[in-house]
Structure of Small RNA 2'-O-methyltransferase:
Amino acid sequence: MDANEDQELKVTFYPELFLQRRIWILNVLRREGITQVLDAGCGEGELLTVLCQPAPWLPAPPSSILPLSPSPSPFSTSPEAPESPTYNTTDDIPNLHISLVHGLDISASDLAFAIERTQPPPEPEDITGGMGYRTYSTGVQRWEDLQVKIWKGGLEAVNEAFVGVECIVSMEVIEHLQPHILPAFAPMLLGVYHPLFLLITTPSYTYNARFTAPTAPPSARKGFPDPTKRTDRIFRHSDHKFEWTHDEFLQWCNEAAETWGYEVKVSSVGRAVEVDPWGREDELGGATSVAEFRRIDGSGGEEREREHRGRAIISSLKLDLGSPPNHALLATHTHPAHPSSQHPLPRPAIAQRAKSKMEEYREAFMRMEELWFERDVSIACGGWIEMLVRAIEECPDLVLKKEDEGQTRRSNWVVELVGADIVSRDLWAGENRSLDCVVPRDWTPGEGPHELPGGSSDEFDDEGESAGVDGDVSWGESEGEGEEPGWGGQLGWSKFKLKRGEGEEEGEEGDVRDWGSVLGDWGSDGEQHSVGAIPLSASSSTAGWDGDDDGSDSDTTS
């Protein structure tokens, strides 16, 4: 036996395993357009915090607000494209439009954190900042009302507020249930509450073999013996009452789905960064087993039948529900929509506001989403980004460029101000430049992908944030004495060549964009989604990367 076979193997995950679980959950919620969620076993509220983030804009307005145009706009560079389409399409990550969130847990200390995390944020300060001050760094407006309710109690007690909720999430919960509580899990969630969707994640015991060599002795596996003494398995957490193999989980899911009238898809997430020396990746699957239950709706009355049968089973189990026997509502938070939501100004007024912003910033080109995150622009649109699209298309002073050498993602759309006097500048010219003029005020030396002057590069570090995440970086050079400076000390209309995607040819010298359009956000799919210095949007997959460093469990072993 190899001397190292009596030791555990190094197994790490990227992204971290808790993030991969969360991303899987959020992807299903986005795909299905879920608006109501119960997080059963919410803990400190990591998922709740993400669900409380507002969507950057409303769903597309009805035709009564924005009728479809029968002909393309004469000012659009894509005459064959439909005018003012729904902004989120299949080539973008859709936004979540959550209206109701429930959080349930039995730990009072964890729920205290959840209550604090889900509180409405303070009202944004009315920062004017003077000419050229960019407001999109101060946060995203909320366009839809959201209600959050935090409950204390166990899964075995019926909560009437959860009956018929659209989606229930149970993330790393089922393996912690006591043996006498586990039989109530499916009857309660799939029977009494009968959601349209139930999403479950749980550790895969099958994957635990990945932590040791195939010939390693049992003593090589570090962990926690089965506390119930029913098996000789070593678990990943001291509070786990069981850990199912992939096949055991699949069997449980299939039986529950058949019993309660659901269809289920079982898979796994979480593959190690390190290559397994014994080639067991396909055999072991992922570290976390996941299941997506979808309710099968047939003739009327099936929901009532499920609920009645579930209540009967829960009653027959004669569980000790404790005192008090019902869930306690600890907090209710209301996140109100902005007063301008769904009350747009006339489209000419919207276009004038967008034009004025570009003139104020001395920008000949701005990404449309960059304009959107100017607070007064989005407020003028009443939260509908399609109103901004149409207003720009109808304005003779603005041109919406929807395509650029095959790039058709909505996040790449660029607005041009017609007749702007574009001045070409050397971004790094000048020997006595103050760092305060060329980097954001909150930038920390050594962080971010961009080098300092003298070592400039427009390449990106795919493991870090773009330099423009927290603040706009406008690199300007004084063009002469006596000229009126723009924002951040820059003069003249900004010009910078658009960064091309990998494998694309560089554009002509006449193809110019502002500096914000070359900064990017790297999504979980490995592609660069140009975000510039604006907050997270529908095109940014970071909506699923909440950045919470979850220390509640070890992501190398749980």
About this structure: Confidence is low (pLDDT under 50) at residues 77-83, 423-558. The first strand starts at residue 36 and ends at 40. The chain has two domains: 3-57+97-122+145-206+225-335, 347-544. The two ends are 28 Å apart (CA to CA).
